[in-house]
Design brief:
The complex is a heterodimer.
Chain A: H1 10-13, H2 18-28, H3 40-50, H4 57-66, H5 71-80, E1 92-97, H6 100-104, H7 107-118, E2 131-136, E3 148-150, E4 153-155, H8 160-169
Parallel strand pairs in A: 1-2
Antiparallel strand pairs in A: 1-3, 3-4
Helix pairs in contact in A: 2-3, 3-4, 4-5
Chain B: H1 3-10, E1 12-16, E2 19-23, H2 29-35, E3 59-62, E4 69-70, E5 81-83, H3 87-103, H4 118-126, E6 149-151, H5 161-170, E7 175-176, E8 187-188, H6 201-205, E9 211-213, E10 226-231, E11 240-246, E12 249-255, H7 268-272, E13 287-290, E14 293-296, H8 299-317, E15 322-326, H9 332-344, E16 350-351, E17 383-387, H10 391-394, H11 396-407, E18 411-416, E19 426-431, H12 437-452, H13 458-461, H14 471-482, E20 486-490, H15 492-495, H16 500-514, E21 517-520, H17 527-533, H18 551-556, E22 561-565, H19 569-572, H20 576-585, E23 588-593, H21 598-603, E24 606-609, E25 618-621, E26 627-630, H22 643-653, H23 664-675, E27 699-701, H24 717-720, E28 730-732, H25 734-740, E29 747-752, E30 755-763, E31 771-773, E32 792-795
Parallel strand pairs in B: 1-5, 15-16, 15-22, 17-18, 17-20, 18-19, 20-21, 22-23, 23-24, 27-31, 28-30
Antiparallel strand pairs in B: 1-2, 3-4, 3-5, 6-9, 7-8, 10-11, 11-12, 13-14, 13-24, 25-26, 29-30, 29-32
The chains are: A alpha+beta, B alpha/beta.
Chain lengths: ~170, ~800
């Protein structure tokens, strides 16, 4: 449009909670003042955590507004990395690596075991909203393949027993 | 002086395909090869965009490098030996080609890019005739990008030229590449339409048929088209264009590369306005009104009728009651002959300054409004002050140049009546009501006097003594003063400001004090040509002073006859209401026009179909003072005739001397002879100013949107469907809205010139207090009066 928008769109900014804003500001402070957009990945993670683990277009817009970025640039980042979700996910998101090392060490069995145990396919969420199974690319833990990521924890050298124990320990 | 020998020793010696070359350090291999005429295939590399190196098509063999390197991202080094056609290079290129073709559909027969497709061309040289790929191809949903660009995203090869164009040239990142790897899709955010005024350039940049012209879709093949050189007819830049025609029809308009003017870009207005050429409004036969009935007739009859009518008025009321109004986008030849006819009849009432309100300084204006510097010079300025200008939309190519300078550090400031969305990093932005612009500029002049220690010119000193200098004024003054190359540019909105003469005088003073170059960015394609051709009441060609009525006087002074050239008074004049009533009350009105409207049928007596720019030869003088002549691209439609020919015959019918031209070049050469000796310096004199004029309670900002500037662009449907084509509306800021009791989304009653119209209300903080932004030149506001003047508004 032809009119400059000097003031930030408060309605958009209000979608980000005060705690999230404070957290994003910590990240913004780590970069030069004119390179606020460097904090975009952190901002996406923080806002995703704030919103039960997934991002909406409105939230992506809000981050763009908060960091003075074109919305499409934030959207590019949010769609590039597999740790950002744009649809609701279960309370526990099991990210299973199926790249070459894990595959050679049995990630197929990990997947089929979990699919059977939870009754869902890769990319799906259980009806009770507790578990989501997600296929991801290499997470850099090849030395202990096969592996999966749950929250911020890596679970490595997976076996059916270990998986059962893990799932049963989650509420 | 230090240059030559130093530079020679700085050059690096390289070899490409055994050819010894000397190139500057920092050059990429592909640039060196291009300069030497050695072709390396490429898709993502473009000389005007940053290097992405993502298509890998330009892989070449470099001696001592273990694997092929991308020529676009490999800087030359001394002694480097490059092989672009070695077995290794060719194998790499062919392999990349094979990968690119894996997902590319084989739909060339139905693809608009066919015949001018870089992928098709390169595939001919590097592709195989059989594909080894038997799996499913990728399919990508098409994206909606607005009314100008069509998409077939399955064809996209992810070169990202369009994305980089948005970020780097258009200055607004609208397109991106969401997703990763196989799932990457070029798109806008949530499929928003592209809002850039330069967006059409992505059509040219796209190496495949993913982004193509929507209006031209399925209309033809490039090899069927004939290319004609022409000049874009909408802004003072004079962009060079190729008009492509087939079977005497304009098929499309493309940029013609001219590094000094438009480089290889073109604004959307210049690219898509041709769609108006085939509007249903086109007048194809001369028509006369007899006893209130319009009759189609032949030229002989129509011209006789026109000439007799004008002579009748002359005999009855005197030649000084005849006036002529011309569009500033008419050709120089048309304008010159029109004034010659009018002056030949004994009147000096001719003007092209249709949007101007203040003519007080016209006698001290330079020979013609120009920039006093070349368009390319703008790349290298260090500071600029734009007064009354929305350069980004008014002259997109100028804005692009300023943006380049801005990106390399130039400080650009504006003094405007609307806080426009510039794609620049503005240093200072002074937003004030239109009748206060001059005072703000006076503040800058005073600040400049302080910072430079020079004194304010005597004629100004007392009249601006009461002006307060703000920090913003000081900052602008410092920017201008510190800069090696500074410029002060007055835009279209300054020239249509009610205090234009004060603004111009103060801008002069600011330029003089700071040593900046003063320039005008004038309206239409040919304001410069109009001034030179004498299409102003106060100066005949060659600068002899004459005394006639200006555009504003003509519509208020009870004229008896009008000749209108390429214009529609209700859309083009600064006071459409007065203009229309002047037309209705005149005894005789001759319209020389490519388009006829129902309004025109009411007030006109003769309508003569004259050619738009594609159907006539002519000359536009751009803002640099460059005369750019062009020939017709297609023969005139129907019985249409070039305007200069019509005026030549009118001259003959009036038995005026000196109307024996055989070609438009004769007209041009005659004018050239009259004006060659003119002083071209565009700095006008510094004159006294009066800043104490009374200010109305509420003042209108009658912005003319970029797609409302002339009769052709107003008829280009695809442009009218964009967001930039403003509809009639009223925008006020929160404070004014509260004061007037206006609510967003409601209707307001707007009163001006004893007429009322109802317009939708928008609340925009970009508008200053006590101002109402009501676009001019659009249906819905044409009943109103002065574009910049008092207005009354009440809640609906």
């Amino acid at each position: 449009m032809m009119f400059a928008q000097r003031d930030k769109d408060q309605a958009k900014l209000d979608l980000i909670s005060a705690e999230s804003k404070a957290d994003i500001d910590n990240w913004v402070a780590k970069y030069p003042a004119d390179k606020k957009e460097s904090a975009v990945m952190a901002a996406l993670r923080i806002v995703q955590d704030q919103n039960a683990g997934f991002l909406t277009n409105e939230l992506i817009d809000a981050i763009a507004e908060y960091l003075d970025m074109p919305a499409i640039a934030v959207y590019e980042v949010a769609t590039f990395y597999s740790m950002y979700e744009r649809d609701p996910v279960g309370k526990h998101k099991l990210c299973i690596c199926t790249n070459i090392s894990c595959m050679l060490c049995g990630s197929d069995e990990v997947v089929s075991h979990l699919e059977k145990k939870l009754g869902i396919k890769l990319g799906e969420t259980t009806a009770d909203g507790k578990f989501t199974l997600k296929e991801v690319e290499c997470l850099g833990a090849c030395v202990n393949a096969p592996m999966l990521q749950l929250g911020r924890e890596y679970h490595e050298k997976l076996t059916p027993e270990k998986l059962d124990k893990l799932i049963d320990s989650l509420d | 002086m230090h240059g030559v020998s130093d530079e020679m020793s700085d050059l690096l010696n390289i070899e490409i395909n055994g050819v010894a070359l000397q190139v500057k350090p920092g050059t990429m291999v592909i640039e060196a090869a291009d300069d030497a005429g050695i072709t390396i295939p490429r898709f993502c590399y473009h000389k005007k965009l940053s290097v992405a190196a993502n298509c890998r098509m330009c892989l070449v063999e470099v001696e001592k490098a273990p694997k092929p390197l991308p020529a676009c991202a490999t800087p030359v080094t001394d002694g480097m030996k490059v092989l672009t056609k070695s077995p290794l290079a060719l194998e790499a290129q062919k392999s990349v080609m094979e990968f690119l073709l894996i997902n590319h559909p084989l739909d060339c027969p139905i693809c608009d890019q066919g015949g001018e497709c870089e992928l098709q061309d390169v595939a001919m040289g590097y592709g195989q005739d059989m594909s080894r790929y038997h799996e499913k191809k990728r399919v990508v949903k098409d994206k909606f990008l607005g009314s100008l660009i069509s998409t077939d995203m399955t064809r996209c090869i992810h070169c990202t030229r369009c994305v980089r164009f948005g970020q780097e040239v258009a200055g607004i990142m609208e397109m991106g590449a969401p997703g990763r790897g196989e799932h990457t899709e070029i798109s806008t955010y949530m499929e928003r339409a592209i809002g850039s005024e330069m967006s059409g350039n992505v059509i040219d940049l796209c190496p495949v048929g993913a982004l193509t012209s929507k209006p031209y879709r399925y209309h033809g093949r490039p090899w069927e088209n004939t290319t004609h050189d022409s000049i874009a007819p909408h802004d003072c830049v004079g962009s060079n264009v190729h008009v492509e025609t087939r079977r005497n029809q304009v098929m499309r308009v493309l940029p013609k590369e001219n590094e000094a003017i438009n480089e290889l870009w073109l604004s959307d207005r210049d690219r898509f306005s041709y769609m108006g050429l085939t509007s249903g409004d086109r007048l194809l036969q001369p028509m006369v009104k007899q006893d209130g009935e319009w009759k189609t007739t032949d030229w002989q009859n129509a011209l006789n009728y026109a000439v007799e009518g004008l002579q009748r008025v002359k005999t009855a009321s005197g030649a000084e009651t005849i006036g002529a109004l011309a569009s500033p986008s008419s050709t120089t030849e048309e304008l010159y002959l029109l004034q010659k006819v009018i002056r030949g009849m004994g009147s000096n009432n001719i003007d092209h300054r249709l949007q101007q309100l203040d003519f007080a300084n016209q006698d001290t204006m330079p020979a013609y409004p120009c920039m006093n510097q070349s368009i390319a010079d703008l790349d290298n300025i260090n500071a600029a002050l734009l007064v009354g200008s929305f350069t980004r939309k008014d002259q997109p190519i100028i804005a692009h140049r300023l943006r380049k300078a801005n990106k390399s550090g130039a400080k650009v400031s504006v003094i405007n009546s609307v806080d426009y969305d510039f794609n620049l990093d503005l240093s200072q932005s002074v937003i004030t009501r239109p009748d206060d612009i001059a005072s703000q500029l006076a503040g800058v002049v005073k600040a400049l006097a302080e910072v430079t220690g020079k004194s304010i010119p005597d004629v100004l000193a007392s009249s601006i003594s009461s002006v307060t200098v703000t920090d913003e004024h000081k900052a602008i003054a410092a920017d201008l003063n510190d800069a090696e190359n500074a410029t002060v540019l007055m835009g279209i909105h300054a020239m249509s400001n009610p205090n234009f003469s004060a603004i111009s005088s103060l801008a002069n003073a600011a330029a003089e004090l700071s040593g900046a170059t003063l320039g005008y960015l004038s309206a239409g394609a040919n304001s410069a040509g109009a001034w030179l051709a004498g299409a102003v009441p106060h100066r005949a060609p060659g600068q002899q002073a004459t005394d006639g009525k200006n555009a504003m006087q003509m519509i208020t002074d009870d004229m008896k006859a009008f000749v209108l050239l390429n214009m529609e008074p209700e859309y083009d004049c600064a006071n459409p209401n007065e203009a229309l009533s002047a037309m209705s009350s005149a005894d005789f009105v001759v319209c020389m026009t490519p388009f006829a409207t129902s309004t025109m049928r009411k007030y006109a007596d003769v309508m003569l179909p004259v050619a738009p720019f594609t159907e006539t030869s002519g000359t536009y003088v751009n803002v640099e003072g460059q005369w750019q002549s062009f020939t017709g691209s297609v023969p005139p439609m129907g019985d249409v005739r070039p305007g200069w020919k019509v005026l030549r015959v009118i001259g003959n019918f009036l038995k005026l001397d000196g109307f024996d031209y055989l070609a438009s070049e004769d007209v041009r050469d005659e004018l050239d002879g009259l004006t060659r000796e003119l002083e071209t310096n565009s700095r006008s004199e510094i004159t006294a100013v009066n800043l104490d004029s009374s200010k109305p309670e509420l003042t209108r900002i009658g912005h003319v949107s970029l797609y409302a500037v002339d009769s052709l662009v107003r008829r280009s449907e695809p442009l009218q469907q964009t967001d930039d084509a403003l509809a009639a509306m009223i925008a006020v800021n929160n404070v004014t809205a509260k004061k007037l009791g206006l609510d967003s989304g409601q209707m307001a009653v707007v009163m001006q010139s004893n007429t009322r119209v109802k317009l939708p209300i928008y609340i925009e903080d970009a508008i200053p207090d006590d101002c109402a932004f009501i676009p001019a030149g659009v249906t819905g506001s044409v009943e109103l009066g002065l574009s910049y003047g008092p207005v009354e508004v009440a809640g609906g």
